[in-house]
Amino acid sequence: MKGVGRAGDTLFLHGGQYLKHLYGNVKRLSVIKPFDPWKSDLCTCRLKYSLHPYTGCSHFCLYCYATSYIGRKPSSPKKDFLNRLRRDLNYINRELVVEISSSSDPYPPLEEWVMLTRQTLRVLADSKIKVLITTKSNIVVRDYDLLLRTPSSIMITITTLNEELARKLEPGAPPPHKRLEAIEYLSSKGLPVGVRIDPIIPGLNDNPLEIEKLIDEISVRGAKHIVTSTYKVRFDNYKRMIKAFPKKKMLWKKLYFERGERLHGYIYLPRSIREKLLEPIIKYGLKKGLSVATCREGLGARYFKAPSCDGQHLIVEHPIFNP
What's the pLDDT score for residue 21? Predict the structure, then answer.
């Protein structure tokens, strides 16, 4: 079993390799896919599947890395998605978590009336599939009833409490206060919720005092876990960022292109700066009693104080397991 390690009770990736038999009959899968996008040792996620009801993403976040391979386009429902999903359930390893979604947000604005993600959850709940929701949208609260029916956890991304900054960075996503309300509502229903404070961008949302205030806000509303990471440059997202924040161009050019390092197709900040930016989040999150981890940073155990990075470990706190 070379290349595979353990976090908690579930296998997770090392070196970007996975044992294919653990994913079931991969060749028969249509919409449920093994999660292994980077094939690198920087990814510390446990083995899981990814599932995207939509292609594209109407949140149009400036820093989005996924646009480099899925393009920058509005959310659109995938064709014949639910029938393909039902077929896929015959071939997956049901011990693994299905994440909805790792790139195209499952709750874009049109989900309010299309309800494709809600229908997806109903199919998964009927089969008691373990689900990890990752979203920037408060629409997720609508589906608390289905999330209560199947083992699940929810990770909501909040990059800043500054509403003006959030509108520039994430123009199609709900404002931060709506996401905070979603955390509180879902937590009140007994659902385990965590927060992605991601990405941390030098000169924009890296003020330690503001980050502490954000952690205070999510903690008091019931969040149990934080995963965080720094902004990683790809040329398409960098062009959007410097267009929106021209005064930061020289700073970012120096930090990324002069001092940064290229890792697996991205330009990272220097390690020392990443440690400096992320350490306050780790320390303050732990102080508030939350589990805390980093995502694709490679900074070691000091920056990884949780059974999982992505929030899978929260599923054991679901009401199904704690009646």
Answer: 62
> How many domains are contained in the chain?
1
Spell out, as residue ranges, where the chain has pLDDT lower than 70. 1-21, 37-39
- Residue reference for tokens 């594209």: 56
> Cβ-count burial of 193 within 10 angstroms (0-12 exposed, 13-18 middle, 19+ buried)?
buried
CATH of the domain at 36: 3.20.20.70
DSSP state of 255: I
DSSP 188-246: HTT--EEEEEEEE-TTTS--HHHHHHHHHHHHHTT--EEEEEE--B-HHHHHHHHHH-G
Query: What is the domain range of residue 85?
Result: 4-321
pLDDT digit string (tens) for 138-154?
999 999 999 999 999 99
Residue 12: per-residue pLDDT: 40
* Torsion sign over Cα 28, 30, 35, 39: positive
